[in-house]
Amino acid sequence: MFGGKRTWLPGKTLAKFITANFGIPNREQKLMVERISDAIAETAPAVREMMVSLDGFEDTGKRMLAAWSEGVNHLRDSRMYGLSPWKSSQAFDGISDSPKLENPRTVVGKSELLAGTRKRKRK
């Protein structure tokens, strides 16, 4: 948690965090976001190729491309770094939604012998 927030979006919280903890000025952060955006746009066609050639990778590839696109667009948003709209590669075009993952609820490391989760009063 930083600045009382649990999320970096929307707003300038991430930029403030990076400046305060790493000393990277906002203008350099914007350049970094531009370079990251370009690298993702250059890498996306390889992901599309793997979605076709590698059995079982299509859904994972869709999820990767969707997450990358969402992340870059959030960073470029006017509330974050205020960069121009992203010119992503054609590899992001025509991606349908990936099927929902089954998420069975599994609790790891919890013993039935432990008491409930009530907080104990301190004396």
Query: Biggest sheet, open or closed, and with what strands and sense?
Result: none
Compute the separation of the termini in Å.
29 Å
- What class, by secondary structure content? mainly alpha
Number of helices: 3
- Secondary-structure element order, N to C: HHH
The proportion of residues in beta strands is: under 5%
The total beta strand count reads 0
Poorly predicted regions are: none
Mean pLDDT: 80
Rg estimate, integer Å: 20 Å
Helix content: 40-55%
Shape: flat
Short note summarizing the structure:
This protein has 123 residues and is an all-alpha fold.
Detailed description of the structure:
With 123 residues, the chain is mainly alpha-helical. The chain has a domain at 13-92. It has helices at residues 13-22, 26-53, 58-76. Helix 2 runs antiparallel to helix 3 (58-76). The radius of gyration is 20 Å and the shape is flat. The model has no long low-confidence stretch (mean pLDDT 80).
SSE inventory with pairings:
Elements: H1 13-22, H2 26-53, H3 58-76
Helix pairs in contact: 2-3
